[in-house]
Design goal:
- It contains 19 helices and no strands.
- By secondary structure, the protein is mostly helical.
- The protein has a domain of about 110 residues: Serine Threonine Protein Phosphatase 5, Tetratricopeptide repeat, CATH 1.25.40.10.
- Helix 2 runs parallel beside helix 4, helix 5 packs antiparallel against helix 6 and helix 10 packs antiparallel against helix 11.
- It starts with a helix and ends with a helix.
- The N terminus is likely disordered.
Length: about 350
């Protein structure tokens, strides 16, 4: 399962956590009629943001600005809406203006750092997280986010130092335990510490599907197949769209020789993520072990079509293996018939 450690690292795309707790928006139907026109639009923008309608939020925040409401708070709110849409450049522009208007806001530096992280501009992200920490030395999110940025730059020791600080400030910070566990497993190769951190994250949040999945990967890598299956199963129960969890549970079943269960899991993973070449390759192998060579060939062909650069060798090696197996089985059958005759 050579891709498990790689799969553990893909979660870092969502590592950063931005901003302070958002104030509860006022429902548009209850907006005080005494509010100015601009203030009403800001309140409506808050309502749209809470509902996840970020385009509408941006539109009404922009309207509020056109009516004269150009405070740091409004720029930050619109920046948050852009950030929720992954519109990083627009978010950075709004945060930069908010910082110009209110240069002592640790939250805005943290949010802009998050946006820089989204653009893979990790040095700029680290600079902003550091500024946020200078303004507020107890800012847990900023330490955790700076740890994630260091992790992405390959500076794993600095990442751990920052996660340690976040945990010291907030001993029940689930995310810091989770991300530190990933660093220990993927980059420091200390699976004991990794399992301890992931287990702590699960203790703090028993519905943390990613933590179960990641711990399952570590158990698999260390040969604890039953524990791995248990964790992958828990991850699937918590997130029925977890294609990777189905794929990895299938791989673990395959290692145990339970090929029917493996094929079932691979098939569900393919249903959820039909363009993952690895899963077709894995299911093809399980079909070979079950003697279903036609289905195996079909899966190998599909894997090559989806990722021809990585899997060009499948045609040669896979076809050769299947041909040898087929000829061997055919020869054995003929010999048995001859000796019976």
């Amino acid at each position: 399962m050579q891709y498990l450690r790689f799969l553990l690292t893909i979660v870092i795309c969502a590592m950063f956590v931005y901003g302070e707790e958002r104030p509860a928006p006022t429902d548009s139907a209850r907006i005080d009629t005494a509010l100015s026109g601009a203030e009403k639009y800001v309140a409506r923008g808050d309502t749209y943001s809470k509902k996840g309608d970020y385009d509408s939020a941006i539109a009404v925040y922009t309207k509020a600005m056109s009516l004269g409401s150009r405070s740091a708070v409004v720029y930050k709110k619109r920046g948050n809406a852009f950030l929720d849409k992954d519109a990083y450049d627009s978010a950075i522009a709004d945060y930069t203006e908010a910082i110009r208007l209110a240069p002592d806001s640790a939250y805005t530096y943290n949010d802009r750092g998050y946006a820089y992280g989204g653009k893979s501009a990790y040095d700029l992200a680290i600079a902003d997280f550091t500024k946020a920490i200078r303004l507020d030395s107890n800012y847990v999110d900023a330490y955790r986010n700076r740890g994630s940025a260091y992790d992405m730059k390959g500076n794993y020791d600095s990442a751990i130092v920052n996660y340690n600080k976040a945990i010291k400030l907030a001993p029940n910070d689930t995310l810091s335990y989770y991300y530190r566990g990933l660093v220990y497993s993927c980059n420091k190769f200390n699976d004991g510490l990794a399992v301890a951190d992931l287990t702590k994250a699960i203790t703090l949040d028993s519905n943390y599907a990613d933590a179960y999945y990641s711990r399952g990967c570590i158990y698999y890598n260390n040969g604890y197949y039953d524990l791995a299956i248990a964790d992958f199963t828990k991850a699937i129960r918590l997130d029925t769209n977890a294609a990777d969890a189905y794929n990895n549970r299938g791989y673990t079943y395959s290692e145990k020789g339970e090929y029917d269960l493996a094929i079932a899991d691979y098939s569900e993973s393919i249903r959820l993520a039909p363009t993952n070449a690895n899963t077709y390759l894995n299911r093809g192998y399980a079909y070979v072990k079950k003697g279903r060579y036609g289905l195996a060939v079909a899966d190998y062909v599909k894997a090559v079509r989806l990722d021809p650069i990585r899997f060009w060798w499948v045609f040669g090696v896979g076809f050769a293996v299947i041909l040898v197996v087929y000829l061997t089985v055919t020869l054995v059958k003929k010999l048995k018939k001859r000796y019976r005759g």
